[in-house]
Design brief:
By secondary structure, this protein is mainly beta. It is built from three helices and 52 strands.
Length: 665
């Protein structure tokens, strides 16, 4: 080799990207090549430079990976699964215990491990509890209602089970059940009562309500867990930490015939403060990805299960989420995230994105957190995602500014809590935040709304959403609701279409808010103060009507919705015909869809969808019920209705007679 060729080779070598390989059968003393791979991902992570790749062969890696360096623009550091291979990074370790019979079907084993989450054959098993709950559906939590005499300091219930439950934990949804709290059980008396280890009484009064909305009372749901007396159902377990003894009632065969693992690490990847890192095609089990203060990172085609778990919380004070994205310009794309105790992914920071992803069974403990949490984000976006089966809100965006929630399929919110929505924010200036082109439906939890802009929300643009079959209102604009635009939405089959609420001792206002071009296929009373603020501080409500749609919610050829709207710059641009149509779909325009364009594994349930609607012909004046202006006969002919009022409906507020087939106030 000539002298000049040798110099050229030396100069080019640092520019050539390296590809290190890792495999479970490798060794960290190897060079990290395909035929001599490393054993640990961290060993490769210590060596990776901008532009380098780490390829992982099939297997399970039980470690937290912290790259030493960041990537740079156009030269990311990449971790990827080998094509066609299943690669898992796990936060759980095998227990490796020696089991022996304890009593009945219960086994015990000595262990020096400390943990709060246990898995049998890859599935989380519930810590021993009462009442028992199904292990196969974490959102179907069984709870017992508190009895008379329950107050700030004690819970009463004549059904309290026998045994010694002192020192166990009580998970309680007190008062209005917006959130939940844990308390230790003291002075347990079976069939009577027990005391909490600390009071629920707040240090100061709630400034917005005439009474304490979190005061425990009869009927509040609760669960007892965390003591040996509760261990009576296959799959349940209890760890007695002082004695170092684990008790387990295995599902089916003896424990030695199952793969038993316990969570030992919170993180699979720690990308805190790093940039230019990419993760592709990985499975993350019982662990999370920390992207706090990260920038320009990408997570693609990854599948996370059980990213976060805890067992104690105190209302709005919930343990910190580990699956976090802050910093700037990070993106999760085509990912699946499921089974998280509270938030499945915190998407804060600036200009971060969740795209074409599936997030489900978040907040399975029923905390105040949203399944997807955009709290205090700036310019973040959730685009083309399916988010469903949440304990409370599906997307919570307190304090977020200039965000976008678009083309998402949002359903089955608030499966454990009360008074929430598929999207929810309180006290937020959205600064032009957009909620648009979403399907928002079948949110049937207690007092569950579709799109929920709670008190003191302003400067939101809510347009072209299809909102149907929600237990409470389709869209809520609670006072103060200022300078919001709600346009070209289609609402049908909701218990009520629009609603507003004002705190006591405050002047109701929706000044500057506009409700325009909406297709309202249900009762809407513009002069009802529970629907819209009245008087000089009322919103502008115009060009909203009822008209025919087909099964896809598109106006039919003869629909009165066609050309019945008014142009709104930036909202109705590109309309067909003489004027925009009412509602979320323009006849002759794009029949847009919402949600991820792929199915998770296993697939999520597909809910019935029957959206065709045709108003009944006019009826004589004497047939019109009360002041509502709608035809009961028309509603019967057009929709399939329940024989009784929906939960939470107040017949006293309904303008229809009690003989009506459905109350929709």
């Amino acid at each position: 080799m000539s002298r000049w060729n040798a110099i050229s080779l030396i100069l080019l070598t640092p520019l050539l990207a390296a590809d290190y390989t890792v495999a479970p059968a490798g060794a960290d003393t190897n060079p990290g090549t395909a035929d001599q791979p490393f054993r640990t991902v961290q060993n490769a992570a210590d060596l990776l430079q901008p532009g380098d790749t780490c390829t992982l062969f099939a297997g399970t890696y039980r470690e937290t990976v912290r790259p030493k360096n960041s990537g740079v623009t156009d030269k990311p550091i990449t971790f990827r699964a080998a094509p066609g291979q299943t690669v898992t990074l796990s936060g759980a370790d095998p227990l490796g215990a020696a089991w022996q019979p304890h009593a009945g079907r219960i086994f015990r084993a000595a262990t020096d491990r400390r943990f709060i989450q246990l898995f049998v054959d890859g599935r989380m098993r519930l810590e021993a509890r009462w009442p028992n709950s199904p292990h196969d559906d974490l959102m179907a939590m069984q709870r017992e209602p508190a009895g008379e005499g329950t107050d700030y300091d004690q819970l009463c219930d004549p059904k309290l089970p026998p045994g010694d439950w002192s020192g166990a934990l009580c998970l309680l949804w007190p008062g209005e059940r917006w959130s939940n709290f844990t308390r230790r059980v003291l002075n347990y008396q079976p069939g009577r009562s027990f005391r909490f280890d600390r009071t629920f009484k707040p240090d100061k009064a709630d400034p917005y309500h005439t009474s304490d909305p979190t005061k425990p009372r009869a009927g509040n749901p609760y669960v007892l867990f965390g003591c040996l007396a509760a261990l009576d159902s296959p799959g349940e377990w209890f760890l007695d930490e002082p004695s170092g003894t684990l008790y387990l009632m295995p599902p089916g065969a003896e424990p030695a015939q199952h793969r038993i693992e316990v969570k030992q690490r919170d993180l699979a990847f720690d990308l805190h403060g790093l940039g230019g890192i990419e993760l592709h095609g990985l499975r993350i089990f019982a662990a999370a990805i920390n992207m706090t203060d990260a920038h320009d990172c990408l997570v693609e085609d990854c599948r996370l299960r059980y990213p976060d778990h805890f067992r104690e919380m105190d209302g709005y004070r919930v343990p910190a989420t580990h699956n976090v994205v802050t910093g700037r310009n990070n993106e999760w794309r085509h990912c699946s995230i499921a089974y998280s105790a509270s938030t499945a992914i915190l998407l804060a920071g600036q200009d971060n994105r969740l795209v074409n992803s599936v997030v489900h069974d978040g907040d399975y403990l029923g905390t105040y957190q949203g399944t997807v949490d955009l709290r205090n984000a700036v310019g973040n976006a959730v685009l083309g995602c399916t988010v469903c089966r949440g304990g409370r809100d599906l997307i919570q965006h307190h304090g977020a500014k200039r965000i976008r929630i678009e083309h998402c399929d949002l359903f089955l919110a608030c499966m454990l809590n009360n008074d929430s929505g598929a999207t929810y924010a309180w006290g937020t200036d959205g600064e032009g935040s957009v909620i648009a082109w979403n399907w928002v439906h079948d949110n049937q939890g207690d007092s569950t709304n579709g799109i929920y802009l709670d008190n003191f929300d302003r400067n939101f643009i809510v347009h072209h959403n299809l909102v149907w079959n929600n237990q409470s209102c389709g869209i809520v604009l609670n006072s103060d609701s200022l300078d919001n635009l709600v346009a070209n939405n289609t609402l049908l089959g909701n218990a009520c279409t629009f609603g507003t609420f004002t705190y006591h001792d405050r002047v109701s206002t929706q000044k500057g808010t506009r409700v325009v071009n909406n297709l309202v296929l249900g009762r809407m009373r513009v002069d009802d103060p529970s629907t819209f603020v009245q008087g000089e501080l009322a919103p502008l409500v115009e060009h909203n009507a009822m008209a025919a749609i087909d099964a896809d919610a598109v106006p039919t050829a003869d629909s009165a919705a066609v050309d019945a709207g008014v142009p709104i710059p930036g909202i109705t641009d590109g309309f067909q015909g003489k004027a925009p149509d009412l509602g979320c779909y323009e006849r002759g325009g794009e029949r847009w869809t919402a949600g991820a364009d792929w199915q998770d594994d296993p697939p999520l349930p597909v809910l019935p969808r029957a959206l065709a609607f045709r108003p009944a012909p006019p009826v004589d004046a004497e047939q019109r019920p009360g002041r509502s202006g709608w035809s009961r006969t028309g509603w019967r002919a057009s929709r399939s209705c329940a024989a009784t009022a929906p939960a939470g409906c107040s017949w006293a507020r309904c303008a229809w007679s009690r003989a009506a087939t459905r109350c929709s106030w």
